[in-house]
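Re: the request from the purification team.
They wanted to know what the chain is likely to look like in 3D before they choose a buffer screen. I agreed to run a prediction and write the result into the notebook, where they can find it.
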Amino acid sequence: MKYLAIITIAAAMLGGGQMAEAANVQITAQNPVIELTISEQVDSRPDTATFSTRVETKAPTATQALRENSRQARMMIEKLKSLGVAADDIQTTGINLNADYQYDRGGKVSRFVGYRVSNQVRAKVRNIDDLGQILDALVSDGGATNLNGPYFSIDDDSKVKQTARERALANGKRQAESYARASGYTGVRVVSIAEGFSNASPHPVSSMRMMSVQDESVPVAPGQVGTTVSLNITYEMIR
């Protein structure tokens, strides 16, 4: 009996990423095939941290609220730059203008009191040792009223992925050869590989509003980031 297999070699981000386009080549396998899914994770120390920060202002009119917020947002962005964050690593992610109401104890609207404006910025820190100092300064001198994160990552994880990929390939081959020998065959050959990967960092620090840090910078423990490569591999059993 002949078995038809499709060779597909592609890379994708797990959890929402789109599979890269790849050529499909049809081949005929003379023997039964084994299909395995192998995942390998490599833990390593992160070298990049990303967090978001925000300034929020209130005023009787929308124009006043927006102008005051813009002034504070510029101050916050300039503070980030003065702390060594590159301009390309600072990105505005949202500007919101909303009417502001006062509520009674029952949760019902009591009266209109003005407008509320928020400006949120995402920043990437490439020297993690400076992260605590940066967070401290943003709140004490930069006007930040909110912090979310940090999320840790590896700026260039190609070497880590290669290590995980090699381990996955070796593990898959061992398992496939074990199946082949148990089925009366002497070995295997690869006829199809599909790859995906993901990164898992420690849980972000909880949202911190109106922090007050006196003498010490914010303590930061980056831990390790897990980089996982998953391979879907099809082997043909051979004699």
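For the purification team: Confidence is low (pLDDT under 50) at residues 1-26, 203-215.
Please add any questions underneath this entry.
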